Amino acid sequence: MNYFTTSLMKNLIANDNNLPLFEEAVAELFRSELEKSINEILEHELTLFLDYERYDRSNNEDYRNGSYIRTFNTKYG
User: Could you tell me if 38 and 77 are in contact, meaning their C-beta atoms sit under 8 angstroms apart?
Assistant: First the structure.
């Protein structure tokens, strides 16, 4: 099993016979996984745009001037 299915199974076992708590735990799991995925996609997009990896030296005029984790206030992230 991968991390996602393992987390689902742990939430199911931990919230046995309590459907509202299980639904809340699953919604939080989906939200956190969506947030991780979007941040990884944005990081990859920046690498492709700048044409060099993080911490690499480049003579390019575009720089990686730091980054921050984006958070989204939607139902899942």
Answer: yes
